Structure to design on (506 residues):
């Protein structure tokens, strides 16, 4: 104890301006003398302990602190030694005191003993506080207990020299504010800790919180992490930058397609328009216009009818486009095959009526697939709570992945067949062989939709819708530009080449 007091007195931070003193009384193993020594110290009588078998030792260093000393008694059940600290311990931390008691040792008939034998704290001991009563006497008040390494301290029972019973504020770390949690520092006292901000989606609304609480699924933490607020609905809207960009691209594609339709209608009697069945060209332009317009259905707040209509419009419009290209390619092959001797009857199977019938047949199959899918297990608006964030995505959830896969698969089957046939017909003799244009356009078309699948699966929230809209617009522009741009160039800028003689030169 002498060592601990001297260490405290050397430290100017723990008790600035105050020096600790001590008196140690040896009770000679007789309990009554220990009690008498304690009472005489409390009473201030330095000469009343005249016990024959006892000795007393006093150390200098006591200074006035502006009031009566408040003795603190520390003892254990294994020893009759009673120690009194006769100065104020207002700023002294118990962990610091326990740390220095590790160095306390004394000599007994059994040999040299340490206060904390083996470095461990005593099994159990009490902390008491002598307090003044209104009558002017003193009373002993239990203020805490150490049980093993657990400290239980009733701070409200402590009476300091100022007469106040208030927990000097910790001089190591301030209390953590709401929105943070306490994190102990390894190897430092309990009053030393860091304040860690709560993670996204977690809150703490009290000072000194040990843990942050996670918000419910439909709620998210506010900016200060002190309260859970409802998550905002999020979807691809016409008001945001991405929605405006896609809408502009869709409207522009519709305008350009309409302009091409007007040009073809005006020059419908010219060889360039009449080549390879002008009726299919007009039908292809109308279906492309529907493809551009159907992309707009994907933008905006999802509803029951919007979720159903957007997939049906997308599937049927693209099948109509690819069917027109497929029939055009078949007609090119049939025309050149029929020019061979003995193959004149081949063209009767590919007249205008048969061409229209083939397009209707291919499109009808897609209509049946869409009708079956939407009647049995249609897409429905649903909140996606799995994506963590302050917003919850409102999207058209695919109740049946099989139905959507069949729609895409049938489009892919027609596109691959068209690409294969156009590839075979690309070198047929003609100054304006449309099969070359179809081959190039279908290559881009297939590349777009092959890249669409992994991008669609990996995109989060509303960006899955944006990916599908982008694929629709990209493939539509590919068909429009690759097939009709060269024809419009000749019709408008090279009219001398828009003759039957030029087209049939080879």
């Amino acid at each position: 104890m002498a060592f601990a007091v001297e260490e405290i007195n050397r430290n100017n931070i723990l008790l600035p301006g105050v020096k600790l003193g001590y008196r140690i009384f040896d009770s000679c193993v007789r309990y009554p003398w220990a009690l008498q020594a304690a009472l005489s110290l409390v009473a201030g009588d330095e000469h009343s302990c005249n016990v024959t078998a006892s000795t007393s030792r006093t150390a200098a260093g006591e200074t006035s602190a502006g009031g009566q000393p408040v003795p603190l008694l520390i003892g254990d059940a294994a020893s009759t030694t009673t120690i009194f600290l006769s100065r104020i311990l207002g700023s002294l931390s118990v962990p610091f005191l326990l740390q220095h008691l590790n160095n306390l040792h004394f000599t007994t008939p059994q040999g040299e003993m340490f206060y904390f034998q083996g470095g461990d704290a005593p099994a159990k001991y009490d902390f008491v506080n002598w307090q003044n009563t209104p009558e002017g006497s003193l009373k002993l008040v239990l203020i805490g207990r150490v049980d093993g390494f657990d400290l239980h301290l009733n701070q409200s029972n402590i009476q300091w020299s100022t007469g106040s019973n208030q927990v000097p504020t910790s001089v190591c770390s301030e209390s953590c504010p709401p929105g943070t949690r306490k994190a102990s520092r390894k190897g430092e006292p309990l009053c030393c800790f860091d304040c860690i901000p709560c993670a996204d989606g977690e809150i703490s609304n009290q000072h000194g919180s040990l843990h942050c609480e996670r918000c419910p699924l439909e709620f998210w933490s506010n900016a200060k992490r002190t309260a859970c607020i409802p998550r905002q609905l999020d979807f691809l809207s016409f008001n945001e930058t991405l929605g405006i960009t896609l809408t502009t691209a869709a409207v522009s594609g519709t305008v350009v397609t309409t302009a091409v339709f007007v040009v073809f209608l005006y020059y419908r009697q010219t060889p360039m328009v009449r080549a390879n069945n002008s009726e299919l060209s007009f039908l292809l332009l109308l279906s492309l216009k529907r493809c551009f317009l159907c992309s707009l259905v994907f933008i905006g707040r999802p509803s029951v009818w919007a979720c159903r209509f957007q997939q049906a419009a997308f599937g049927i419009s693209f099948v109509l486009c690819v069917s027109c290209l497929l029939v055009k390619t078949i007609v090119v092959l049939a025309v050149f095959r029929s020019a061979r001797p003995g193959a004149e009857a081949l063209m009767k199977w590919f007249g205008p009526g048969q061409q229209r019938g083939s397009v209707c047949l291919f499109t009808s199959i897609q209509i049946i697939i869409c009708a079956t899918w939407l009647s049995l297990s249609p897409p429905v608006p649903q909140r996606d709570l799995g994506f963590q964030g302050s917003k919850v995505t409102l999207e058209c959830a695919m109740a049946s992945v099989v139905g959507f896969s069949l729609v895409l698969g049938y489009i892919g089957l027609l596109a691959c067949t068209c690409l294969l046939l156009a590839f075979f017909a690309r070198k047929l003799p003609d100054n304006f062989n449309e099969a070359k244009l179809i081959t190039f356009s279908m290559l881009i078309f297939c590349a777009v939709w092959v890249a669409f699948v992994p991008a669609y699966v990996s995109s989060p929230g509303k960006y899955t819708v944006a990916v599908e809209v982008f694929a629709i617009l990209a493939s539509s522009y590919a068909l429009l530009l690759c097939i009709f741009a060269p024809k419009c160039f000749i019709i408008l800028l090279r009219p001398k080449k828009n003759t039957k003689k030029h087209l049939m030169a080879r």
In short: Residues 47-67, 76-94 have pLDDT under 50 and may be disordered. The two ends are 116 Å apart (CA to CA). DSSP finds twelve helices and 18 strands in the chain. Residues 378 and 411 are 19 Å apart (CA to CA).
